[in-house]
Amino acid sequence: MRASRQLIAAFVSLLAAAPAVVQAQAQAGEWVSYRDAYRAMVQFEKYGGPKNLLQSQLQVQSRDHAGLGEGAQLTLTGKTTQLNLPLDALGRTVFPLTKAAYDENAALVLNRKGMPFVLRPQVTIAPRADGQYDAADLRTACAQALGFVRYVDASQRARQCVGVRFVFPRKGSAETAGARLRHAEGGEQALPVTSGAAFTGDPDEGFPIVTWRFATAPGRAQVVTYNAPLAIVPIFE
After folding, report:
1. Number of domains in the chain
2. From CA 13, how far away is CA 32, in angstroms rounded?
3. Signal peptide position in this chain (predicted)?
4. Which secondary structure element, helix H or strand E, spans residue 178, and what is its range?
5. How do residues 127-162 score in pLDDT, each as one tens digit?
6. Cα-based distances in Å from 138 to 27, 75, 216, 231, 232
7. What proportion of the chain, given as a percentage, has pLDDT over 70?
8. What is the pLDDT of residue 145?
9. Residues 222, 225, 229, 235: what is their CA dihedral angle, to the nearest 10 degrees?
10. How far is Cα 78 from Cα 100, in angstroms, rounded to an integer?
11. How many other CB atoms sit within 10 Å of the CB of residue 17?
């Protein structure tokens, strides 16, 4: 139960950009109980508020911040369950909610022998195939994410949505990793690209980042990305 409470708390601390991040640690450095991860991840499924613009994933990180390396994946292993869960460039995977794995208390195993790791739930804004994001939709999506955070922890009610952070792959030029702001009257401006971490508490800060704050364009506008972002992270303050 302690590990499941830690995972649920991680939803709040990560999305609300709290300075301290609580994580579920692998047992003996090599596996995590499926039930513990399930209890945290099912919170998003149970949430009855608007969430159509959001997605929920499970993130894996090495506990010593050394990085997972290419080809890392989780394997869900139980008496009758065997499922490979490939990880994206941010160490995330779609978490399967299965009764059989829960009943068997299957293990989540990382294919990095002896590497201690942690699991962190991540809720982000779902990307669009056309790369065009209306400002109104981004504000709505951020509000949906904040609603979920408040559902998990009522103490976060003082937080407000202030913007979004587009996270791009490391490979590519600043232009291909960037985005531009398209105003309602037709004018466009490039948004600055910086380097940073995808999520609060991540040790890897080498990702190209475009941060867009809602206050910079209070009217109608669009954010247009040059290429698909790895993640769109809501920003709360």
Report:
1. 2
2. 20
3. 1-24
4. none
5. 999 999 999 999 999 999 999 999 988 888 889 999
6. 38, 34, 13, 13, 9
7. 85
8. 97
9. -40
10. 9
11. 16
Residues 121 and 23 in one domain: yes
Q: How high does pLDDT run on average in the chain?
A: 84
Region 178-203: mean pLDDT is 89
Contact at 8 Å (CB) between 207 and 198? yes
How far is Cα 106 from Cα 114, in angstroms, rounded to an integer? Answer: 19
- CA-CA distance, 32 to 55, in Å (whole number)? 22
Separation between Cα atoms, residue 137 and residue 131, nearest integer Å: 13
Of 81, 105, 125, which residue is a domain's last? 125
Chosen domain end from 125, 150, 177: 125
pLDDT tens-digit readout, 73-108: 899 999 999 999 999 999 999 999 999 999 999 999
- Report CA torsion sign: 168, 19, 69, 6: negative
Among the listed residues 220, 21, 45, the one whose alpha carbon sits nearest the alpha carbon of residue 118: 21
Cα Rg of the chain (Å, integer)? 18
**The domain containing residue 26 runs over which residues?**
2-125
For residue range 10-54, list pLDDT tens digits in order. Answer: 444 444 433 222 345 555 457 889 999 999 899 999 999 999 999
CB < 8 Å & 24+ apart, contacts of 84-91: 87/60, 88/230, 89/169, 89/170, 89/230, 90/59, 90/122, 90/167, 90/198, 90/199, 90/230, 90/231, 91/59, 91/60, 91/61
Say yes or no: 102 and 149 in one domain: no
- Specify the pTM: 0.86
Q: Assess whether 75 and 178 both reside in one domain.
A: no
Residue 163: CB atoms within 10 Å:
18
